[in-house]
Amino acid sequence: MTKVLITGMGAISPLGADLPGSFAQALAGHCAIGPAPADIAKWLPDILLAPAASEPHTLLDSKHASLDRASQFAMVAAGEAMTTANITPQPADARRFGVFVGVGFGGAHTVDGLYSRFQSAVQSEGKRNPVLMHPLSVPRMMANAAAAAISMRYGLNGPSNTYSVACASSAIAIGEAFRAIRDGYLDAAIVVGCEAMLTPGSLLAWNALRVMAKPHADDLARSCRPFSQDRSGFVLGEGGAAIVLESAARASARQQPALGELCGYGCSSDAAHLTAPSSAEQVYAMQQALDDAGLQPADIQYLNAHGTATETGDVVETESIRTVFGSREHSQLAISSTKSMHGHLIGASGILEFVLAVMAMNSGSLPPTATLEVPDPRCDLDFIPQTARHGCQVDAIMSNSFAFGGSNASLVARRYPQ
Fold first, then answer.
1. Domain boundaries in the chain?
2. Distance from C-alpha of 177 to C-alpha of 245, rounded to nearest angstrom
3. Following CA atoms 161, 202, 62, 132 in sequence, which dihedral angle do they give, to the nearest 10 degrees?
4. Catalytic residue among 31, 167, 194, 379
5. Which of 101, 111, 247, 303 could join 2 in a cystine, given CB atoms 3.0 to 4.6 angstroms apart?
6. pLDDT tens digits for 244-255?
7. CATH of domain 4-107+142-414
8. CA distance 3 to 183
């Protein structure tokens, strides 16, 4: 089995228009959470959002302006990752180069726009035909729209696969691309996670689930508080992130330095409850990832937790991590939830958190759980409260993604000697 290297990464997130900017803001403990715009606040006055730091269409060619917002985020992130990896369109081995995308609900802006247009036409008393819609509405809202756009932009003829597994979507996309390259089915892949569901319709649905954070009394930006005693839920964000994966042989042949080696992937299903997590299956996913990488728990120095700031989720994840890595007294593992700053990007969360973890590994600087002031006594691990840590020796990292529906995914990466 071949080694799988990370040769490019990119992101557009609530923290920044690119990956270096996003990582810098995470290290600074900047929380990109704020009030909803008027069209949403009139229905949900207490709802909070983490919008992207930049409008994606301003970073793209005009021909991509017609894509749904989620696909635009995907294109921006993919562009940065491919540039970092020094890969140009139409590679010679295009049939050995795949596209893997994770998205929770692609096309939310297109769907909301369709209903708004229909309602407006009906209310205009017949002056407009309510059934006349844009002819590309369906291609825009398809879950695989981002994958199709990326494969066409770069002329990639390998498999183009889309995974929609709620909060674990892009983590699973990374893992499946990793397996395809490791097992010899592909030589390279661009993996992308994207999400853009900050729309009235989507937020009304999320609000009904009763998992959204309540506004912080003193500072709205600090409303998402994972592992805190006073946590009240998560805040939805939007954006995208991407990584380029290559076999060691392909990267070596073109003398492309590696940002790390993706070496472990584990996944499992709770098969028990739609929203309540299972510690046993989270443990199994993490153990699979470690076994896949040939590493012991002590070999991991930093873990980017799923950490959604929900009452049950944080406690169960703490229990799972403790089972695998040991108690705080017996472990050197540092953990943080960067959702405290960028919010929950659903389908894009897994890959955004993974690339931030790889950045932490390479820089030795660990992003904090920025809003953790009063820890829940049941969440008794080292969750890097409030302030980033610098000068850390990090040889390997793990990133967890645990989804509604009971899907669990863990990823492991380590340093790769140049």
1. 4-107+142-414
2. 8
3. 100
4. 167
5. 247
6. 999 999 999 999
7. 3.40.47.10
8. 9
Contact 48, 235 (CB under 8 A): yes
Strand runs (DSSP E) across 128-233, as ranges?
A: 160-163, 188-195
Q: Is the pTM of this model over 0.90?
A: yes
Q: Is 306 a catalytic residue?
A: yes
At 385, is the pLDDT very low, low, confident or very high (cuts 50, 70, 90)?
A: very high
Dist CA 151 CA 258 (whole Å)? 23
SS3 343: coil
The SS3 assignment for 375 reads strand
The reply to whether 342 belongs to the active site is: no
Q: How many residues does the chain have?
A: 418
Q: Which amino acid is at 105?
A: F
Percent of the chain with pLDDT over 70: 94
d(CA 268, CA 248): 28
Question: Which two structure tokens, joined as six digits, stand for 23?
Answer: 């990582």
The count of C-alpha atoms lying within 13 angstroms of the C-alpha of 326, restricted to the half-sphere facing its C-beta, is 12
Residue type, 96: R
